[in-house]
Write a structure and sequence with these properties.
The structure is a homodimer. Chain A is an alpha/beta fold. Chain A is built from 20 helices and 18 strands. In chain A, strand 17, helix 20 and strand 18 form a beta-alpha-beta unit. The radius of gyration of chain A is 23 Å and the shape is globular. The model of chain A has no long low-confidence stretch (mean pLDDT 96).
């Protein structure tokens, strides 16, 4: 057994069964070992940003890490933007980055770069394996970090000589210490706030937004009158009919401040205080009302379910009945494509138990609140702000849940960052329907120019926020990667296309021309 | 004048007139300032890898840096692979990376990352501007580094408050100290070697591969009998009919060793000793013959022209006559697409004074030697080994040389990394003809598996080197981004398509189905 084989055996032994791969010459022994690793499913991607984003989507749905296989420093660099998004989402992943044999580094060959510097800039845990005898143990350590409750980005650099040298076999699984990270003092003060009658907002993040913890939060709300909310972006929310609905703290600074203004207490579970996404001249970064008190019960990566259970007991809300999302009135999706008609189509058309990966920045901001009455589903959002998240994350979510439909909502500008994901969806036969909201501009920038105090943009500047010349033809792009697509121009057409796309297995694309 | 305006005025004042941009909210004041910077041409890209690769191609043809405009850490990360390629090519560029205002960083907003760590891992020079009063001076320092003879990657981080705060105006140009970096001792020993009669190889890199220095090298060759060569990859070679042809040191280790075996002396000018691209079990990294002596006359970034002139005088070769590439016999491009017939088409079809950007890994390795007899042209190659170089670099080369035709040769696997470049070519009306060599696999990996001693790949492994399922349709992909394309399946079709593509202005794509 060589080092690469011991690495793969360690991975599959620890339950890491999926690898999103962009291999190169330096990963040749890993590649050859794949054929001798029966428990491993490898999906080829055409660009590392797809591999990294897929690992994020996979983790969110599987609750365990996937691996990526990347080619030296530049391969890791191509994955970094979506690794950043995963990191901010609390998704763990094991990045295996091939490198030159150690003896080759001194010659400064073309692909040599500051690989360790790059890896440290994006990873919680970075290690370069020194010998083929060590690599299995190193892999076990990486998997422990990536698979912990506070899941981390673990990057293992695999030099050629470590991959091809001899190994005595796989290493056993290392179990991470999963501290609940609950702050007992904050828990007590939160309970007092909830019982004290002052307006209180309970903000949930991470795994506290699954149906079970949400039900508990709903009971606390029913008993104490607190409002339950999520940040504007969340890693995964189980929502829809029959689930406890949560308010969403607005994205823009002024509405967010207005939303938060009434609350004298903020209780945070698996998330932190609401902060502005960007910095603006003359606007605050911290959005809570002056004098509002924060109760950080547990941080991201803590045990939010246990925190909510303890809180529920302290406020004696076990017997309360949570208010759940009623079934919405259906129909009404007619005429021009507007935020309302788009939302009508989605509310009626999202199939039960689907996974909605939402990166429709401008469109989604308006439609989200209008789709709460859809059938029960999971929504995944971009947590790191680096666009090009949704097509890869949808790919990974579909790999994790082959029996669920995935609906990917993405703006045209964002989609073009990682459009190569469509090809992997076609190759793996994944049930992903991609909806491109094509407004032919980076509309969010036009909105932000006023918020920034930069004034109205002139013609040369506007050229840098517009993508209408030439117009992107997403149906042609999808065809180029083996995915059937249609373009729709009104609500009826959108509803019909969505129904057809979801009726048959395999990837589809709908270009919604706004 | 605000900080962003002072930055742009400093750039245009110093001759940095082109910016490849992927802006976001944090770059809003830079964006607004573009309208008040009449000397600046901004080209929007759909992905930062295109912006960075375009800056590389621009530098190689313009001999001066372009700027990139990138959005925080993840935007820089998306550009890093092609920044790596540029760095290895000795191309300078000024990366302006927008960031949160400094006061906002403490809140760890979603797009916060280790931006400085990322920047340092890829840049020669990294600086975060502290105040709006400083940024013009900081920009001048960045431009000096990027525009020096030993050109560097200069990354300037522009926090929001620095962009929107007040400035007293632009800063004057700083001139870099351009040392010739010629080693007088190595120059003398090289001259003695050349006159001594032992087999000597003169290896040229960087600007020493332009027509002028090549003519001098050709005289030295005619006088002394030395062989003049280039590394397998070079940043820019002026070649074709009437120019001094250089041998190319092979890519694969065994042929490279065989090529170098006869030479007792290596004279290196603007490049170093030939080393293996990758490390392989039981193969050396350093390729020269045992006992061969190296004469490093000047390193990359040195004054190769001055070095060659001095060497020419020392060996008294001024009056010698360099042997130049004769006109090749034309015609013969018929039948199936083979390395020979592809090369025949290119040799006959490349227009005089065109720029050939060559990243056709498997195909190009065989065709290059067969196209020396084409009309005079410049060839640019990928110096860093991170694929996805050629479509962006072609975009930048066309921006630098609007009166020259650009021919981009790229394999299907490489093209998919940065296929978004086609859209910028269409938007800017650039004269780029992209030739996709579609063999539907990462053929180079299949070749390398044997070299690596990893054995023949099994079926699961082969899936990771093959991109034939589904087949990529590059004509559809091009249509999706506004570029007309055709598919060809034989040499006559290829020749016809190339002639048609080059006859009319604007971008085109030819999918050569191998």
């Amino acid at each position: 057994m060589n080092g690469a084989e011991s690495l793969l055996a360690t991975m599959t032994g620890a339950g890491v069964e999926t690898c999103f791969a962009n291999p190169g010459t330096s990963e040749m022994h890993f590649l050859a070992a794949v054929d001798r690793a029966p428990g491993l499913r490898c999906a080829l991607t055409l660009f590392e940003g797809v591999a990294a984003g897929a690992a994020d989507g996979y983790f969110r749905m599987a609750d365990k890490p996937a691996a990526t296989l990347l080619h030296l420093g530049p391969g890791l660099a191509n994955g970094m933007a979506n690794i950043h998004n995963a990191r901010r989402a609390g998704s763990g992943m094991v990045n295996v980055v091939g490198d030159h044999a150690s003896a080759h580094l001194q010659y400064d060959a073309p692909l040599t770069s500051d690989l360790m510097g790059m890896a440290r800039a994006i990873s919680h845990w970075t290690h370069r394996s020194q010998t083929s005898a060590d690599v299995a143990r190193d892999a076990a350590a990486a998997i422990a970090r990536a698979g912990a409750r506070k899941a981390e980005i673990a990057t293992l650099v695999l030099p050629g000589d470590v991959a091809w040298g001899p190994s005595s076999g796989p290493a056993p699984l290392v179990r991470a210490q999963d501290d609940s990270r609950i702050d007992a003092h904050a828990l007590e003060s939160a309970a007092r706030a909830l019982l004290g009658g002052e307006p209180t907002l309970v903000i949930l993040g991470g795994r506290a937004l699954r149906a079970g913890p949400l039900d508990i939060a709903g009971r606390i709300g029913a008993k104490t009158g607190c409002v339950v909310a999520a940040q504007f972006f969340s890693a995964r929310i189980e929502r829809g009919v029959g689930r406890v609905a949560v308010s969403r703290i607005p994205y823009a600074v002024d509405p967010a401040i207005a939303f938060l203004k009434p609350f004298r207490h903020l209780v945070m579970i698996e998330t932190g205080e609401p902060v502005a996404f960007f910095s603006y001249p003359d606007k605050p970064s911290l959005l809570k009302a002056d004098g509002a008190r924060s109760h950080q019960v547990c941080p991201a990566g803590g045990d939010g379910l246990a925190a909510l259970e303890a809180l529920c007991d302290l406020v004696q809300a076990r017997a309360a009945r949570a208010q759940v999302q009623p079934r919405a009135q259906r129909g009404g999706a007619r005429g021009p494509l507007t935020p309302q008609s788009v939302a009508d189509v989605l509310r009626d058309g999202l199939p039960e138990n689907c996974i909605l990966v939402d990166e429709s920045l401008t469109t989604g901001r308006e439609t989200y609140a209008l789709t709460g009455g859809a059938a029960p589903h999971d929504t995944l959002q971009n947590m790191g702000g680096s666009i090009g998240f949704s097509p890869p994350a949808s790919t990974g979510a579909a790999m994790a849940c082959p029996d669920r439909k995935v609906v990917c909502m993405v703006g045209d500008g964002s989609a073009m960052y990682t459009i190569q994901a469509l090809w992997t969806q076609a190759r793996e036969g994944l049930d992903v329907t991609t909806i491109i909201f094509a407004n032919r501009r980076y509309q969010i920038l036009n909105n932000e120019s006023v918020n920034m105090g930069a004034g109205a943009l002139g013609p040369k500047s506007l050229e840098l926020t517009s993508i209408d010349r030439p117009e992107l033809d997403f149906v042609a792009l999808a065809k180029g990667m083996g995915v059937p697509g249609v373009r729709v121009e009104d609500a009826e057409g959108f509803a019909d296309a969505l129904a057809r796309a979801l009726a048959a297995p395999g990837p589809k694309l709908i270009e919604v021309r706004l």
